[in-house]
Design a protein that fits this description.
By secondary structure, the protein is an alpha/beta fold. It is built from six helices and 36 strands.
Length: 359
């Protein structure tokens, strides 16, 4: 064969895969890879590329392979165990997560490209073939057992069968339910949901619901997604906070307070005695002026706001190392604490995925 196409990078796995994380990072830096702080590369996992850049606090599970000519992975990215990414150009945005046993590769061209935006998630057992390119926008979710193909080719074109190599474009804030099959040349607009086990073979407009085999639009804006009134949003957040605090109690934490101020108490054991860690949470359900919000940085660990937090208030909270969560803009600061991370994780259940921003 004139063009070598290795399935498994056995040499790299033997040389680097079983090294402890700190030695593996050292070797990769000596190879010219740019790795941020807090990067963790799992047991048996390897990175293979000519130009590799990995952001802060990004992790891979065990026996995960990422291979390409140019690999750019953002900060706070998580790639699950036994996932295989093998494409010449790979780009994964900040905060995205690829679950276990995902395969991204297959038949490809030298310019084949896989781009995953910020705050996305790809569930387990999904197969993606970026023969030309697959581009997935920010805040998009791809369910498990999905198939996204950039090519259709098997039977001979000289015998009249269709052959297609086309890019796939999936917009921002798109939801692909489990078992969706996306064919080459597909374009899916921003904010669209594709129902489970659907076949998508054409352009689907933005902000609609499409289901079926092949998928067709069954509902669109303003029926889908529907407008939510301010009062409804307040009730939603109150329900989520009550449910979350109730579950905290079932997970061994104690909570006090009836809102908008709460205390979450975690018990632990030291060498000679038990100790407690008290976390203070402030939840703001109503819109308030900057002057009213200015006092919330004192004695508070997490400030959760349903509405946009003004820049001046963010700076005030940042200076006091109060982790804030802005639901309206779906943002949080670059720093974090244990309670804030638990709340951010809980909000994901309700489709609120937070972007990490500087200010």
């Amino acid at each position: 064969m004139l063009i070598a196409q290795k399935r498994i990078p056995v040499r790299e796995i033997v040389l680097y895969g079983f090294l402890p994380n700190f030695l593996k990072r050292l070797v990769y830096r000596l190879k010219g890879y740019r790795l941020g702080k807090g990067v963790r590369i799992g047991f048996g996992s390897v990175l293979c590329g000519k130009k590799v850049q990995i952001g802060d606090y990004t992790t891979t599970g065990f026996f995960t392979i990422v291979r390409g000519k140019e690999i750019t992975i953002g900060s706070h990215v998580s790639i699950g165990s036994t996932t295989f990414i093998d494409t010449p150009f790979v780009e994964i945005g900040d905060g995205s997560k690829i679950n276990e046993q995902v395969y991204i590769g297959g038949l490809q061209f030298p310019e084949s490209r896989f781009v995953l935006g910020r705050n996305c998630q790809i569930m387990q057992m999904t197969f993606i073939n970026p023969a030309k390119s697959v581009i997935i926008g920010d805040d998009t979710g791809v369910g498990g057992h999905c198939l996204i193909f950039g090519h259709t080719s098997w039977l001979s074109r000289f015998e009249g069968y269709p052959i297609d190599f086309s890019p796939v474009e999936i917009g921002k804030s798109v939801s692909l339910a489990w078992g969706v099959f996306v064919l080459p040349g597909t374009k899916i607009g921003d904010g669209t949901t594709i129902g489970a086990n659907s076949l998508v073979a054409r352009t689907v407009p933005a902000r609609c619901l499409a289901v079926g085999f092949p998928a067709r639009v069954v509902s669109k804006y303003p029926e889908f997604p529907k407008e939510v009134a301010q009062e409804e949003k307040v009730d939603m957040l109150k329900h989520i906070v009550d449910e979350m605090l109730g579950n905290f109690g079932k997970w061994g934490l104690r909570t006090t307070g009836a809102g908008p101020d709460y205390e979450i108490i975690a018990s632990g054991k030291g060498f000679f005695s038990s100790k407690e860690r008290v976390w203070r949470l402030r939840v703001e359900y109503e819109r308030k002026s900057e002057e009213e919000l200015m006092g919330y940085g004192n004695g508070c660990d997490v400030f959760l706001s349903l509405w946009e937090i003004p820049k001046r208030i963010r700076s005030h909270l940042n200076a006091r190392k109060v982790m804030w969560i802005d639901i309206e803009r779906k943002e949080q600061p670059l720093f974090w604490n244990d309670l804030g991370e638990e709340i951010a994780l809980y909000l994901k259940r309700y489709g609120v995925r937070l972007y990490r921003v500087e200010g």
